[in-house]
């Protein structure tokens, strides 16, 4: 897995984000709106096909019966990871253009694109399965958006930094004008995304008469993936990303994307070192020693950073595992409560409305109109993932 990730990140080194930036920035507002939507569609398509490619690569059945096909599947997986990481890079560039625009036209366009989700989701009929898929899509979308906005803010801080190790601009001490300029678009986009998601889910549950306790069951399903130890024949060898698969979260391409951006950020930090051009150059031996010392410092920083990230990952994994076991211990009581709650009438429905609903259901649900031996098509929530076709893909 690590070799696969490093190979994808190494191939991304040859990309030119500056060319992407100027290519996207030169477009007008309408084309940028189309770019946003096209990249969103490409992200969903790559996630869907990427899950199948990775399942085929790490399948226990294929590894035991057809080990000679491993290089082919590995090449396909690397091609997929690089392609999906390029989609993430273009999303970052487009978001960077919108956030760092001189006027607020592009930022307003980005916010309006978010509010279009309300129009496309609220005035439609949903069931619990579709609501679960929407929730999974919103979780992944919000995480990716916050990650990209954090990267944009960090890049802006690096560009405004005064020296090689000044991670905050000098204006942080004198005033907060530059910090407000950097973080205000980021905060606005994040808050607007959260507001859109809250409104969308609030009106969906209102119109569909779905009780908010259903979100607790969604948490129980995701927690069950974290504590599940079942290993079936033909299942992927690595069962750790089971919750990621259910959410539709592409971890490997996103990891390669983060590595590529981190390498570029380190290059920006090294290029911003303050050197006095008027000073006399040291002797060659001292100059080589300074270069070696600088590389040693950067290597030490990378090792310490990797150890810190590893410690955070372990602590976060332990905390999530404890939370998942706690949720699973109380899941039975919540299911019993949900069953009792479902026996009640929907919110805002009186006795006459209930009689009309039952009468309409009897007329519309006669077995005479059904095809003989037709599948019902209902998938239990415990077996549902984001990219299972229920009504549409979110």
Automatic annotation (TrEMBL):
<comment type="similarity">
    <text>Belongs to the TAPT1 family.</text>
</comment>
<keyword id="KW-1133">Transmembrane helix</keyword>
<protein>
    <submittedName>
        <fullName>DUF747-domain-containing protein</fullName>
    </submittedName>
</protein>
<dbReference type="Pfam" id="PF05346">
    <property type="entry name" value="DUF747"/>
</dbReference>
<feature type="transmembrane region" description="Helical">
    <location>
        <begin position="247"/>
        <end position="267"/>
    </location>
</feature>
<feature type="region of interest" description="Disordered">
    <location>
        <begin position="345"/>
        <end position="365"/>
    </location>
</feature>
<feature type="transmembrane region" description="Helical">
    <location>
        <begin position="295"/>
        <end position="316"/>
    </location>
</feature>
<feature type="transmembrane region" description="Helical">
    <location>
        <begin position="72"/>
        <end position="93"/>
    </location>
</feature>
<keyword id="KW-0472">Membrane</keyword>
<feature type="signal peptide">
    <location>
        <begin position="1"/>
        <end position="17"/>
    </location>
</feature>
<keyword id="KW-0732">Signal</keyword>
<dbReference type="InterPro" id="IPR008010">
    <property type="entry name" value="Tatp1"/>
</dbReference>
<keyword id="KW-0812">Transmembrane</keyword>
<dbReference type="GO" id="GO:0005789">
    <property type="term" value="C:endoplasmic reticulum membrane"/>
</dbReference>
